[in-house]
């Protein structure tokens, strides 16, 4: 009896030791950090605490990876569900922008766009006091004399989000919502396509998303596409920070009221349509920086898409 108890205790100690070792390896070798951002040739060994992601990708298993930037245009019919409903008081469904707004008010960190490119700058979250200036539906100081349909509103009414310096909290102001979402028609996403030898297939993961607002564009030169895109970007969000909020919100149904899908499922199944605006390359530039004609831009977009589609097939062909 004593020998049996000794063997059981020894097995329990060994199991605990191996579990701790495996957990340590899980911490060190994870391809993604705790915020869902890929570690590409870095030494940032933060532990992975994500309870939503079920697939664990070790850094040692990733043989190839490529970062791609895409735009989701909600004027495309396939993306209508991200734009509607446009009302902020719908008791059941919220648009993607309202989900993001509610998450920001709840304390989700947002980040600035990098100065040199469209890339996110995750070095430090944006200060709460600066957030209302981003969610501005109208500029009270701008000259709208050439627009007969425009009417002036106060700076306070133009802010979709208000900041209370005493309580250090943000609040939602519904008055400006209709004016704001009218020109919030696009999102840009940063995703990574990578091949894992553990699963022997390509995976695609969205790492960050940024809403784009047309009223923020000051560049009137139609040829300067990159500047227009960058100015329209409000802020970057780490996609994994947004996922808990998307998991709890159903997307508005399309032609089938019995088919209810959460935002999390919508993005996991890639039910949206998008187009490429750039990728990670040695020149550190987007497509619009070296191609200006529309046909040449489309040709370059098709080239990148084809390379991504052919990589997995070419890998197994030889």
Quick take:
This protein is of the alpha+beta class and 318 residues long. The chain has helices at 2-29, 80-83, 96-105, 131-134, 155-158, 177-181, 225-232, 239-247, 263-268, 294-317; strands at residues 62-73, 161-164, 169-172, 186-196, 201-212, 237-238, 275-279.
Describe this structure in words.
By secondary structure, this protein is α+β, with helices and mostly antiparallel strands. Helix content is 32%, strand content 16%. It has 10 helices and 7 strands. It has helices spanning 2-29, 80-83, 96-105, 131-134, 155-158, 177-181, 225-232, 239-247, 263-268, 294-317; strands at 62-73, 161-164, 169-172, 186-196, 201-212, 237-238, 275-279. The strands form 2 sheets. A 5-stranded antiparallel β-sheet has the order 6-5-4-1-7, sandwiched between helices. Strands 2-3 form a two-stranded antiparallel sheet. Strand 4 and strand 5 (201-212) form a beta hairpin. It is globular, with a radius of gyration of 23 Å.
N-to-C CA distance:
60 Å
The stretches of 5 or more residues where confidence is low (pLDDT under 50) are 16-26, 41-53
Amount of helix: 25-40%
Output the helix-strand order: HEHHHHEEHEEHEHHEH
Please work out how many helical segments DSSP would assign: 10
Q: What best-fitting shape do the alpha-carbon axes yield?
A: globular
Number of DSSP strand runs: 7
Q: In what order do the strands lie side by side in the largest sheet?
A: 6-5-4-1-7
What portion of residues belong to β-strands? Answer: 15-25%
Major β-sheet, in short? 5 strands, antiparallel
Structural class: alpha+beta
C-alpha Rg (nearest Å): 23 Å
In terms of quaternary structure, the protein is single chain
Mean pLDDT: 80
């Amino acid at each position: 009896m004593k020998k049996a108890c000794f063997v059981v205790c020894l097995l329990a100690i060994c199991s605990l030791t191996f579990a701790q070792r495996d957990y340590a390896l899980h911490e060190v070798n994870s391809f993604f950090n705790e915020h869902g951002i890929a570690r590409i040739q870095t030494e940032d060994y933060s532990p992975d605490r994500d309870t939503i992601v079920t697939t664990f990708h070790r850094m040692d298993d990733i043989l190839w990876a490529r970062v791609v930037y895409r735009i989701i245009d909600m004027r495309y019919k396939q993306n209508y569900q991200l734009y509607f409903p446009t009302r902020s008081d719908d008791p059941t469904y919220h648009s993607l922008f309202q989900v993001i707004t509610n998450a920001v008010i709840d304390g989700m960190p947002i980040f600035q766009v990098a100065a040199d490119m469209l890339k996110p700058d995750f070095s430090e979250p944006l200060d709460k006091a600066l957030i209302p200036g981003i969610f501005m539906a109208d500029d009270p100081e701008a000259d709208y004399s050439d627009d007969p349909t425009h009417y002036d509103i106060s700076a306070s009414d133009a802010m979709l989000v208000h900041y209370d310096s005493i309580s250090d909290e943000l609040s939602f102001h519904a008055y400006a919502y209709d004016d704001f979402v009218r020109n919030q028609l696009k999102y840009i996403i940063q995703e990574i396509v990578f091949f894992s030898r553990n699963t022997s297939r390509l995976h695609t993961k969205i790492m960050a998303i940024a809403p784009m607002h047309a009223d923020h564009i000051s560049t009137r030169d139609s040829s300067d596409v990159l500047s227009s895109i960058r100015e329209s970007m409000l802020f970057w969000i780490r996609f994994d920070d947004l996922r808990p909020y998307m998991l709890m919100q159903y997307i508005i149904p399309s032609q089938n009221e019995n088919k209810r899908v959460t935002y999390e499922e919508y993005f996991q199944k890639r039910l949206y349509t998008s187009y490429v605006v750039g990728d990670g390359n040695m020149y550190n530039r987007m497509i619009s920086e070296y191609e200006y004609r529309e046909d040449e831009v489309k040709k370059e977009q098709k080239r990148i898409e084809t390379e991504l589609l052919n990589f997995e097939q070419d890998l197994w062909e030889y």
